[in-house]
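Structure tokens please, single chain.
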Amino acid sequence: MMKIRDRKMSEFNMNFKKSFQNAEASPSRTTRSISLSPKMSLARSMSIMTVTRPRFGGSSNNALPELPISDEVINSISTFCFPDGLKVHEKKPESTTHFFVLTDISGRRSYTTCLTLYRPFSVEKMVIKYGGPNLHHFPMPLYSLTTMDNSLLHVCMLSYIERDPEEMTTFLKEYANVITHIPVPPAGHLAVNFRLYNLNVTLMPPTHPDKPVIDLELHLVFLCFNAEEFLKILSCILVEERIVFLSSNYALLTLIMESVMNLVLPFKWRFTYSTILPSSALGYLESPGTFMYGVHSRHKEEVEQVEGLILVDIDEGTVFIPEDDSPGTSKKPKLLNFKGSSSVPSLPTGKLQNINLIETIRPFNYNIEDLRQNKKKRVIAQNKFIADTCLELMVNLFRDVIYKLRFEQFHFDKEKFLEEHATDRKFYQKVFLTDMFKVFLEERMNGTTDYWSDLEMKTRGFSQSRSMTPSSYRCKPIVPLDKKDTTVFCLKEITDLKIHIKNTKMQITNAMEHADDYDDRTSLQYLRALYNFADNDNMAAMQDFINVSTANVRILPAKVLSDLYSRLTEEEKTKFMNITGHEVILNCIKNKGGEGERQRIRMDPIEVPDTDLNYHKFDEIISLKQMSNDYRTIKNLFEALTQETNSSTTGSHSKCSEIKQMTFQIFVCCWEDNQIQCKKVKLEENTLSEEETILKISTLIKTDYGLGRMGLTDKRLFFLSDVSNNYREIVKLREIKDLEQSEHSSLFSIFSRVQTLKIHRLGKGTSPFTAYLKEERNWWYMVIREMWAGKIVAEAMKDVMMVQHAIQNTLLIDAIIARLHKSIQNCLYIVH
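Here you go.
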């Protein structure tokens, strides 16, 4: 939607007030004559008629509907059209185009393309008083406002205006009329094509229902910055620093900043954001809080004097991050350690060069339209590759967040995540404090299905559903998306609006009958629903949207459905409620604004309460600490600990339904101590498999392999020799034949017998392995037997979750036995 309004032009680069005088010029003249006086307030000399258009589907006499752009935004446009102030030139400069993004108080963004033309005017009184030439060129801004980022399209349209300024108003009326009546296709493979002033324009569909249509050349970012500097920019955005982009080209400021904002999706910047900061507003750089501004590089020295700013110089391709050398400066942001990280995919620099080099084999084409189409295809291919690569980066950086979410308790295990990402701990600590991460966390907690979650599911490794170590989160290469060609649906030119709507509905219906692809038929039905909505055929529009929902509910336009439902009469609502599938439409309307109370997601460590625990609290803590997620296991564990509480309570015959705080605290400490002991084990790289987890490590014991320690993983038993710490495999769990509890007597201690555990292995001629575990024998017997049984059952049932269940049970058994050992030791200490 576009509306052209008269704007006041002020602040000429003179020492007196300047303005324009109304002057009527004959059609044959190419210049306009005005008189300027320092003491006169003169009216504007040129005016652009306000564009009016009929309502969509209404008559031409209808008034212009309310714009989806606030007055606050519209009133501030002139400042951004002339960010350095309005200047008059003796020689006619070249016309220029720049872009800027305006944000209203509600956070809604408006994308603006400004074309600055220069019109000749004859200045008479100025020549008499001051001398000099009487012909000057005054800038005249023409801007196009949209609520979508579609700037390149408007550049193509606005370039036609300069050809004949006298016919500018007529063109703008037709331009606005056509643009506002062309529907944007839904996510899929169907594009919409239309013609305007002999210009062939194609509206591409978004790649995903939740993703905006990107009409920018994303590869410009990698022409300005190398991979290392680009990753610095991403890091600064993810930790929400105060960032200023610098460039000598106003158009480039917006293109680069908007491209970067698209490459960090699904993370959304919700703070102050302006791609162009006018010279008169540089004082905002010293304001507190988080912001992102674009500033002309001529003000670089002034910007550098402001403390705590991240300076991104687009012209030089550098990122300046201030050091924390003096008090009062902002702390240097903790950047992600990208070097050698498996989370960072290959960035698209080399690939983009290959795409451009491929064009050299094509023969030169003298057809301008073909050149435009070839360039558009190349840009689309580049954008797709860049967007997919950066999305893969975002998935790899934050995929482990999913495995640390406890959905029922609305809890994110931040400490566990940081333990597994010790190398980048400081970076993630700062990210977890940001607003964009909290929004991202809420979306994951609410089960949002979007392009991020789709790619995360496609690239999720087989072992990720059960592993407990960060090394198991192996990032598979990005899954190539479907390479289906885009189908183009060509709309006819608009002559009469009502006739155009009727004919287009028939054209879409005919195309649906001949469409071979199911997705294309869905997209066509979506477009027909919009045209039915424009034609006030409400029930037909509802039926089309219901049919679309059966194919892909995620492409439904919630706002359009809300407006459509509000237009239904009581009789139509009754009919609508009888249509099968109407519930989906109502749910979409209900969830349009994201209604519902937002529940705070906790990220603090899970502490043991100071009071006794009932079953509900016990279940919550066990689940949050990921000790177990099995209902039956948790219930049996609760009963075991309450029986211990009952047995320790004298004079009580009633069954206790709570666990003593001290009993539970010791149990948790034993479970955590075992985790700490296992993490202290240092093995050479590739000794264990990538998804293998150490579950238990023994004290220093005597074995058939000498003096050392025995360890248990979810796949094997191993031995670490004392002092040298040499690794030696004892047996794989699947190769265990039997476990035997025995006793050994030596010549030096005839009357004392040492408790041993013999592990019999499969295979001919293999002798059993003997470990002299003493009082830990029964303990190790139960732990090994539980993990061994779980491994056998998992392989028999082909279910990897059985291994995870066995791991949890093994750790719980170990914690219970350790708790009993501590109780016995405490009792012996008290007796002595």
